[in-house]
Amino acid sequence: MQSTSHFLKRLAFYFGLVSGILPAAVHQARADALTGLSRPSANIPAAWPSQSTAADYVLITDYGAIGDGNIANAGVNTTAMNTALATGKTVKIPYTAAGFHFGTNQITVGSGQIIEGESQVLLKSTATTSLFRMTGFELTSGISNVSIDMTGSGASSTAIRFGTNSAVPVYRVRLSKIKFSHCVEAIGDEAHATNYVVDIIIDDCMAWQTRGRQIYNRRSRGFFLIRSTNVDFTSDPATVTWEGIRLEDYAGLELERVDVVGWGLGPRVYNPAIRSIVLNNGIALWLTRVFADSVIGDGIFINNTQFVFSLTTESSLSLGIGIILSNVEKGVFTNTMINGSNGIPGAAAGAGGLYVENCRDNIFTNTYAFNCTGAGIYVTTGSVRNTFMNNSVNANGFGLALQGNAATTKFIGGSMNGNTTAVANGSSGAGNMIRDMTGYNPVGAASVTTGGSPWTYTAGISPETVYFSASTGVSAVTRGGVSILPAALGANVPFTAVLSPGESIVVTYTGTLSAKKLVQ
């Protein structure tokens, strides 16, 4: 028996020998025979050969799907899709201008099942539940390169729904290059008590002409990425009265180049319940170039979250507070921008830029807040050990407001120029400090009210230099119980003490004591 190698050499020689005498059609037939491909039929795009000869995908049209956009063909199209998915191969949907209608039918996409459209081919649905229900587990499943129009769908419908009511969690789903329109909800999950979604990627998607909150996931337990995705309210025919994105109960959530933009075409009236982006109850959150624009409520709300890495986050022209952080701890926030809505009809009075409550152990660097109807930065009840560095605030009221019992809050460097009042300190908490803040620290001395000997003086939230003298003399000055007076002072001889924020001195004197201070 001849070896395989010898046989292939003889075959190559034979085809080379006859290549000069065979007509072109025979040459093509010979090439097709060697590659296992037949020529595409006239009604199939040349780029996608028919499924009967392709090794790695099938076409929905090979199973009877009709791309005329007619709801009368919804049953045929649904059967074709289900049959194609059952092959285990990638299902491709060729482009037609009218698209494919699936009516009220729901299509389940299970483990390893993938749907790919051509040129964002249109898929229509009037579902009462969802057009696609993703139940994949272990093997990657996904949908890409389609447009989904849910005009006429039910009030509780979703374009793509994670089937968390199934027996196992939903795992390894990829959604990319999808355009959603007229959706009550574009991407969502089922309300299950314990099941969750994990290892989900939503990439290069857009939702517009909305009918409700567009992305809502109740339970994500890790590796949930939303990237290059936009919820656009600007073309909605009326004022949008729903959130853009809400993600809850997460572990390992990343938003990268995510926008929620606009409020619709109706009048703007402040509604505190309407927010662009809500991130609630999670661990490990990464934000990179996240933007909330022109919502009728607050811009971005992050609640009950640990380990936050925010690299570039912006809220602009929200009628309410720009960014709210509540019960956030162990976070690093860098390059945060808040553009308020001062002067815009419907803006809430006293709406701040960055609002921080019950937050602990966070570092804020390069925060810029301007044009707010309230303080640029609020730090209030329950907030401790938060540090702000190199921040710039140019609001229309207070630059910085310390309230409630906020404690050990440190503001170092930056600018408070252009505010009606640079700092309003109403906090009862200890250890707060403000230093090296342009536009806040007064120039020159300010009078100090003294008390009877021994007199105790405590510096405020910024470093201070205190100047004092007594009409008869000063016999002792102590700081922390340690004397800082080298020798007793005679009548009207001045003494200077440099104090850190919150530091105290005790002065023992006779006669009348006078004092002034310089805030550093």
Automatic annotation (TrEMBL):
SMART domains: PbH1. Residues 294-435 form the Right handed beta helix domain. The keyword Signal applies. Residues 1-24 form the signal peptide. Transmembrane segments: none annotated. The keyword Cell membrane does not apply. Pfam families: Beta_helix. Keywords: Signal. This is Right-handed parallel beta-helix repeat-containing protein. It comes from Chitinophaga pollutisoli.
